[in-house]
Amino acid sequence: MAVLTVMTWNVQNLFAPATTDRLDADAYQAKLAALAGLIDQVAPDVLAVQEIGADPVLADLAAACTTKFEHYLAGVPDGRGIRVGLLSTRRFVRNRDITPIPRTRLAGPDRRMTTPPARQAAGCCRARSASALSR
């Protein structure tokens, strides 16, 4: 039986440092190493992350891990520049950014429609990967 391990993690404002700030660069590398250590303990096939910066952050995180995340993508940033992202050991065969987050039903007796609070990210990314048996 094929097994697919999925992990999700809010990495709390993982942004690449300004190139001229050595203290920020050291803190960034330390954070990447700490995240990678825990991610590698799980060794997921797919890792969904929240609160990341631009695309190079995913490449940096993938490189810091011993798990071979050869495929990654970042969603559309919200007004603060924060994104969601996916890293995968399996190739993506199709992806789509979904923005804004669609209206959802509340679970309650009134069944009202609601929108997410304005402080939340403005979208998500969705990807379909190759079959669980192919890498």
Topology:
Elements: E1 6-14, H1 22-42, E2 46-52, H2 56-64, E3 71-74, E4 83-88, E5 92-98, E6 104-105, E7 113-114, E8 124-129
Parallel strand pairs: 1-2
Antiparallel strand pairs: 2-4, 3-4, 5-8, 6-7
Describe this structure in words.
It is a single chain. This protein has 135 residues and is of the alpha+beta class. The protein has one domain (6-129). The protein contains 2 helices and 8 strands. The chain has helices at 22-42, 56-64, and strands spanning 6-14, 46-52, 71-74, 83-88, 92-98, 104-105, 113-114, 124-129. The strands form 3 sheets. A 4-stranded mixed beta sheet has the order 1-2-4-3, with helices on one face. Strand 3 (71-74) and strand 4 form a beta hairpin. It is globular, with a radius of gyration of 17 Å.
Q: What is the CA–CA distance across the termini?
A: 16 Å
Q: What's the story with the biggest beta sheet?
A: 4 strands, mixed
Relative strand content: 25-35%
Radius of gyration: 17 Å
Number of distinct beta strands: 8
Mean pLDDT value: 79
Instruction: Identify the overall geometry.
Output: globular
Helical run tally: 2
Series of secondary-structure elements, N-terminal to C-terminal: EHEHEEEEEE
Adjacency order of strands in the biggest sheet: 1-2-4-3
Low-confidence parts: 115-122
Helix content: 10-25%
Question: How many domain regions?
Answer: 1
Going by helix content, strand content and strand pairing, the class is: alpha+beta
